[in-house]
Amino acid sequence: MEAFLKAGVSWRLLRLAHTVARDRYKTEHPFCARRFATDGKHIIEFLAVEGLLVECEEIAKSQKVFPEVVRPFFKELEFSADDRLLRWWPLGMKRSVVLDPNRQFGQPIVTQFGVATEVLYLAVKSGDSEEAVAEWFEVDRRAIRDAIEFEERLAA
Questions:
Q1: Strands 53-58 and 115-116: what pairing?
Q2: Is the Cβ–Cβ distance between 28 and 18 less than 8 Å?
Q3: 75 pLDDT more than 70
């Protein structure tokens, strides 16, 4: 649920979608499955996948959506072989920021180094150079730039 909130989904919509999904699947944790994703404003459920045909629905409103339109927004989520949501890559999987519930209590970190994005961001914003911060925390400058971009998106 935290990933949906951080992606921009409102509490009101999240509660409504959770209620619908909880009742539909008879579980208190319906979002712990691959069948859900977000575009930042809606929670989309993959209802059926048959060959190349995919059916999607905006769950809170029971409104069908075109998979071709929403698919680009799902590139940030990583799932296990059994369809459990593992990690959220808010800048995309080719970047270094990740939210992983098994690391740093699910706080956003730069994955290769395990340092919280907020720590790197605040160090640079306090007036220290990227070079100095990279040396102190033993991270590369690309990871620092990713952390800054992520934190600034949160503030926007």
A1: unpaired
A2: no
A3: no
In this prediction, residue 71 carries a pLDDT of: 65
pLDDT over 70 for what percent of the chain?
86
115/79 same-domain check: no
Return the structure tokens found at 129: 């150079």
**Cα angle value 110/2/85 (rounded, 5°):** 75
Residues 25 and 73 in one domain: yes
Question: Structural domain of residue 116, as residue ranges?
Answer: 105-155
d(CA 126, CA 9): 30
Query: φ, ψ for residue 47 (rounded to 5)?
Result: -85, -40
CB distance 90 to 101 below 8 Å? no
Flag whether pLDDT at 30 surpasses 90: no
Listed residue (31, 152, 129) closest to 83, CA to CA: 31
Q: 17 and 75 share a domain?
A: yes
Stretch (H or E) spanning 148: helix 141-155
